[in-house]
Structure formats: C-alpha cells, structure tokens
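Exam revision sheet. Question 4 asks you to relate a sequence to its structure. Input first:
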Amino acid sequence: MRSRLVEYHCSNGLLTDTRVSRATDGLLRYRQLDPSLSELLDVAVHRFAGRTAVEEVHGEQVTYAELWAEASRVAGGLKSRGIEIGDRVAIRFAAGVRWLEACLGVILAGGVPVSLGMAWGDAEVSAVIADSGSVLVLDGELPHGVPFIDDGAAPDELAVLAYTADPSGAMLGVELSNENVLSTIEGLLHSRDYGVEGVRNLLVDSDFRSVRELVHVLATLVIGGTVVVAGDFWRESAHTVDILTGRPEDLLEPRLLAVGPAARAASRSVKWVDCSGFPVTAEQEDKLLAAFPAAQHVMGWGKTETCGGGLILPIESASTHLGSVGIAFGGMEVALYGPDAPGGYGELWCRGPSVARRYWNSPEVTSSRFMQGWFCTHDTAQIDAEGFVRIVERNAA
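Answer key, structure tokens:
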C-alpha cells in the first residue's frame, strides 16, 4: 500500500507556522494548545467581557459575559437532567444566539454537541439522533440550573460529533476531538490577519450544522470579534461587517448583491470574503471578485473529516495556479495514492492535527478511510511541484 502513496510537500513559505512540529507519532501537531474548547473560550470571555459576542440583525445581541453566563446556566440545567461527561446532546436551532447558548452549554456540561440541520427531514433527524445515541434534544426552551463549567476535558477527548453524508446518502458521524477543533482554529487565524480589534463576521447561513460554520464562529470569538447573523436582512447588514463567510452561491445571492447604496457600501467596506472549505467555480470566483473588489478573497478545500479546513489558496497565487483549491496549511500534509501518484495524479490523502480520528459507530467505514494516520478523501486530485492541489473529481461527502 505504501509503495503507491506519494507525499507532496508545500514549497510556499507564506503559510509556515513555527508553532507546528513533528510529534512522536509522525504527525505535525501544534505545541501548547489549550487542552479544551471550554478553556480556550474562557480566556476570550474574560479578555473581551464587555464586547458584543453575537448579534442577530433585527434581533437579540449578547456580550461575551452574558453569553458565558447563560451557557453556564444551560450547562447546570443539563447536569440537573443527568447529562454526564461524553453524553451526546442533539441541537436543532436556527443560527443565532440560542444555537450558540445551547452548543456552549453542552460543551460546558462536558457533553458532546450534535448539530441537526434545520432543513433536514424527520427521517434524517431521527437517524442521526439514533446513531449518535443522543440522550437529549435541545430544540425549544433551554434548561437552566446552577451555573456549571466542566474544565477537565483533555485534547484527545471527543469535542464535537459532526454528521456528513456519504456518496450513498447515509449519514456518518465524524468524531472531532478538542485537538482537532483547536488546531483548525489556530490554522484559520494564522492564515488570516484579523487582529483582536473586534472584527464583525457575517455568517451568511441560517444553519450552523456544518463544522465549517462552527469553526468560524469559535475563531471569531477567540479574537474578540462579533458573530453577525442576518437571517433575511443580508442587504441591511452587509455594509456593517468586516468579513463575509459562507458558500459562494449564498454570497452571490441577489438579496445580498442588490443594486443600491447598501450594496455599494458593502463592496467597499468588506475586508475579507471567505468561501474556504466550499467548492468555488471559476464563474463564481469572477463574480465575487467583481462584487467585492477591495476585499481579500479566501478560498480553499476541506471536509467534515478535516474539521472543515485543510487547504487554502493564497490570493496572490490564484492567478498563477488556476483551478487549484490551494496548498496545505496548519500542519496538514497531503499525498496521492494510486499507480499514477508519482506523476502527480491520484486519490488525495491527508493527515494532520485537524484530521478526525474515526467515524462514530462505523468501524468498517473507518478502517477503509483512516489508515496509519492518513484520511483517504476519495477525491481524485492533481498536485504540482509546489504542492498546489487541483481536484479533478470530487467525492459527494
């Protein structure tokens, strides 16, 4: 098997992170990470207590201190209902304050959040709840109790159980540890220059089910920013934010790009347009560049199994590497598998600190996709001499 596996190294020094080093297991890992999400966020809360953490346009907004206090009360309510360390708790709220209070509440209680898609049908919801073994579903009034914060989690413990569909449509639970999520946040922030002055990140999505959205939410909070959720009021809010994050088709939605003063203001004031982790066609890229000419455009590749990250395409490389989805960053390493791998063509494999350890409750699928630290993506790719990856055929998952 190894004779058909060829590793490709990135020669672009722009994304070199000196905090990453080779561990005894052969993987690149971040040094001196916080042990858990709760401890990382606790530092941010005390540092930015009075800042606005989440803002719903035409709705509720909460400060860091208010969000943490409410989440700890939710954690206490969950403990009073018998939630134990490692218990899975399903969450089904639209993107916004309530979703984040529920998610953080589960984390602070020592549980594992399982986010359910708002657009999912009853069959999908039931299947995920049953497969995950969720002991409780949060979809209405949140439980409250004596404030509680579990601060004993370790880096290798399960932090999030995120579901993705395999090519047949079956739902697979991806186990993401504290280290996976924390490493992805570190890599994301290292590859962008957001600072800690309080950026406003508009997540153009009514559903935070995807781990990509969760990572962007948490990364925004780590640096003292504000997560803005606009719902149907995109055009009214776009000119008040620094970052637009979402799928390219959503960022190009007519309501966001409607002609008028607000749209023109948005095109001038938005500093970053982030579609990383989502497929972007050449036509969509051209339209985004035209709509937001003053912004830095961040594109790349990722899967749920890589915690939504993995490859990033630096803006200065987009014109010289047409069709590429980027180069590895944040401790990620890539390889090609197959008879044509030495020539730069084959199945894309990757490994690194953000790569999941296995699928939940699916040992057979795990053994076919996770091998000796590598994740077999089932995407067919080409990799050039500089390490830039081009996806030739994309797996549906």
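Marking note for examiners. Residues 174 and 359 are 5 Å apart (CA to CA).
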